Amino acid sequence: MRRYLLPLSAGLALASGCAHYQPRPLSPEEGLHRLEERGFPDPGLRAFMERATGSRFEAWPPARLDFEQLALAALYFHPSLDVARAQWEVSRAAGRSAEARPNPTVNLQPGYNFSAAGGATPWIPGLNLDWPIETAGKRGRRIDRAAHLTEAARLGVFQAAWQIRASLRTALLDLAAAWRRESLLERQAEISRGLLGVLDQRLAAGAVSQLEVAPFRTAALKVASDLAESRRAAQEARVRVAEALGVPVQALGGIELGVELGASPSVTPDPDPASAHRAALQNRADVRALLEEYAAAEAGVRLEIARQYPDVHLGNGYQWDQGESKWTLGIGLELPVLSRNQGPIAESIARRGEVGARFTALESRVLAEVDRALAARRTAREQVERAAALLASHRRQLESLRAAFQAGGADQLDVRTAELEAAAAELLHLDALIRADQALGDLQQALQAPFPGGGLLVPSAPQSPASPPHP
User: Fold this and answer.
1) Residue 81 in contact with residue 167, Cβ under 8 Å?
2) Which residues are within 8 A (CB) of 419 and not within 5 positions of it... i.e. 6 or more apart?
3) Which CA distances in Å does 67 have to 165, 172, 261, 337, 345?
4) Fewer Cβ within 10 Å of end Cβ, the chain: N or C?
5) Contact 178, 230 (CB under 8 A)
6) Each residue's pLDDT tens digit, 383-401
């Protein structure tokens, strides 16, 4: 009996090294508490930003953060990046599963001899060991497919980071535009009040009629309405900035958001469309991730084809028969007579075709995004130039009228009207700057150049030879 107590003891020893379940319950209350505590004083954010920028902050939290620093804060806080990282970890765990080899099985087969001779034990203990051997490179195909899927999930982290960056840029641009528009509308409202004051004086003197004053009153009411809408838009944009950062809106208190309109020089030449197309297809994380999915689908086809060939099962048996040790050796094969794995092969081929069709559709969408962004960039730059020329013309006219008014050659009403027209031209110029900055952001998002500080998004991990380098 001692002979088969040894494998049983070995099995119990292996079982003692197994992983054990550790509960991690979710609580909405605890989650709410963690989200409400998020903010810039977090020392982990400071360490993250110092690693990313290579410089130390003298004071923390800083009083002002520019766009790149705010983008780093969004990468630190935003939960969607945690989701992408978790999906990558799931793929990495699946890769470890793909590397696993099938375990041998052991069977205890005790027998009993009812015709045993007197004095001999009637028990015939036996033990069989079955050792499966995979053939046709199935394990290598599994590992290859898992490696490509893991790389696709890793690239998904960068795609999520680009989406976070784009959302933050749009929200900050909307906030800066709302602030600037509010300032210009306040000035325009002040000018309108001054103009109406002059008209009211002339109306009291009988120099003008109510019919002549009515359009100016309507214009003043529209300015007041636009000002109220701008203030509402600023509050909403501030909430969207907090959402894009992944923090509650109260966390923005005491932090100056450093974003400027028209920061990019309008003289920057537009990229060549052909070069932009190539750059987008080479850089974009979603394109590269889908290429990895296609490579995984290719590996899946090879795996299913390899599964046509049966695995080998080596069997080794031992039996202790009334004092005699008996050994047996066997080889087992599955007979592929009823199924040659044709169904899974057809499914894998169809899945590869589906991924290929998705890639073609993605390429078409990416090229269209680049073309739209380039066209919007050119149009926006032209609009900025025209709006700047119009604003300069109104300012020259206003200065001329002010000089004439000082010399007694112009009327105060003419000066006020010119001030109102110049303020309206400033709003047109602001709208053109907003469209230009948004077009630049759309172009950057369409091209997706290598992500700044990409090494901080995911830790280094072994990659398959076919995997592209880190963005």
Assistant:
1) no
2) 191, 194, 195, 398
3) 9, 8, 12, 65, 50
4) N
5) yes
6) 999 999 999 999 999 898 8
> Residue 106, class by beta-carbon neighbours within 10 Å (0-12 exposed, 13-18 middle, 19+ buried)?
middle
Sequence-distant (6+) residues with CB within 8 A of 392 are none
**What token pair was written down for 229?**
């809408």
> How many angstroms separate the CA atoms of 447 and 377, rounded?
13
Q: Which two tokens stand for residue 341?
A: 């794995």
Q: Residue 61, preceding bond cis, omega within 30 degrees? A: yes
Q: What's the gap between Cα 424 and its chain centre?
A: 39
The reported pLDDT for the residue numbered 5 is 52
The rounded distance, in Å, linking the Cα atoms of 245 and 81 is: 11
Cβ 259 vs Cβ 177: under 8 Å: no
Contact 183, 430 (CB under 8 A): no
C-alpha closest to that of 156 among 279, 294, 300, 284: 284
Is there a contact between 114 and 166 (Cβ–Cβ < 8 Å)? no
281 band by pLDDT with thresholds 50, 70 and 90: very high
Strands 64-66, 256-258: pairing is parallel
Distances (CA, A) of 60 to 39, 248, 252: 12, 19, 14
- For the chain, the distance separating the N- and C-terminal CA atoms, rounded to the nearest angstrom, is 62
CB 348 within 8 A of CB 320: no
d(CA 130, CA 102): 11
Closest CA to 283 of 157, 193, 158: 158
Distance CA 167, CA 172 (A): 9
Confirm if 262 and 436 have CB atoms less than 8 A apart.
yes
pLDDT tens digit string along 297-334? 999 999 999 999 999 999 888 887 777 788 888 888 88
Segment (H or E) for 112: strand 111-112
AA identity, residue 134: E
* CA atoms 234, 235, 240, 241: torsion sign: positive
Structure token digits, residue 311 = 């695995």
DSSP 118: T
In the three-class reduction of DSSP (H, G, I as helix; E, B as strand; rest coil), residue 336 is classed as coil
CA distance 327 to 128: 10
Q: How many CB atoms lie within 10 A of CB 153?
A: 24
pTM, two decimal places: 0.81
Beta strands in 276-397 (DSSP E): 312-321, 324-333
pLDDT at 112: 81
